[in-house]
Amino acid sequence: MTGHDRIDHIPYIQAVVGELEALGINTGALINGASSDSSKRATSVVILNWDAWPWREWDDIHAEVMWDEECGWTVHKVAEPENHGVTHRRWILGPELVPDPTEVALRVEAIVNGGNGGHHAEPQRRNAANHSPRLEMALAYYLPTR
Predict the structure, then answer these.
(1) What is the pLDDT of residue 87?
(2) Could you state, in order of their start, the residue ranges of all structural domains in the chain?
(3) Structure pTM?
(4) Lower Cβ count inside 10 Å, N or C end of the chain?
(5) What's the gap between Cα 53 and its chain centre?
């Protein structure tokens, strides 16, 4: 790596998806650029059949796992309660930006099973505009080797 190279984050996301699938959490397509800020690397993974998990509430309409380079991993539930519009609930899955894929999957599994795998806050961990060699090195670990 030289200068301010930005490593592709998708191989890391795919590693997490593999671990989710291994735990029986079915996922849909990756939604790249899942942030309103196009300069920030962000990807969402839709949780399929999520309504079969214990955490499903009657007014929930959508669930996804999202990674972005400022906050790391979050789990989002979108609900539409009667007469209240759309609401969003999210869980932060820990302080690390690039935790081990198995750890991410285990935290997601704890949440969808109705347990505590995260926190209900959304602190920003870093600013995407600030280059982080440490983040780039962590993502580079998941790049395919030639």
Answers:
(1) 64
(2) 10-140
(3) 0.84
(4) C
(5) 18
